[in-house]
From TrEMBL:
One of its GO terms (molecular function) is deaminase activity. CDD domains: YjgF_YER057c_UK114_family. It holds the Pfam family Ribonuc_L-PSP. SUPFAM superfamilies: YjgF-like (SSF55298). It comes from Hyaloscypha variabilis (strain UAMH 11265 / GT02V1 / F) (Meliniomyces variabilis). Gene3D superfamilies: RutC-like. This is YjgF-like protein. One of its GO terms (cellular component) is mitochondrion. Belongs to the RutC family. PANTHER family: 2-IMINOBUTANOATE/2-IMINOPROPANOATE DEAMINASE RIDA, MMF1.
């Protein structure tokens, strides 16, 4: 029987009570979506979509570390933007986190709305 294990770190925003920051299962880490929220204040970082992209990816990096993995082990990324005009600004920051080859598989879609009125949310999957 395969067991799944919840991942929790205080170095990323606490999850709402109905989901985990991440789940480890079968050598993989499945991270919930992260927005550009600062973990101690639990408020969105001010500034641009680039600032919130950086914070979201920093949060996800901390979750991966807590799981025993790292950003270098990411295999799939899903990005949600409320405005595709933010695509280039998001990509510029994204590339600073995923500069090594091979780069992860990725999907980026435009959505109508995201939690707390943010403009970007990112979820990812990594191996241990």
């Amino acid at each position: 029987m395969t067991l799944k294990e919840s991942v929790l770190t205080t170095k990323a925003p606490a999850p709402m009570p109905f989901f985990s920051q991440a789940i480890k299962c079968n050598g993989m880490v499945y991270c919930s979506g992260s927005i550009g929220m600062e973990p101690t204040s639990m408020k969105l970082v001010e500034g641009s979509v680039a600032d919130r992209t950086k914070q979201a990816l920093t949060n996800l990096s901390e979750v991966l570390k807590a799981a025993g993995s790292s950003i270098d082990n990411v295999v799939k990324v899903n990005i949600f933007l409320t405005n595709m005009e933010n695509f280039a600004a998001m990509n510029k920051v994204y590339d600073t986190f995923f500069s090594k080859e091979p780069k992860p598989c990725r999907t980026c879609v435009a959505v109508h709305q995201l939690p707390l009125g943010t403009d970007v949310e990112i979820e990812l999957t990594a191996h241990l």
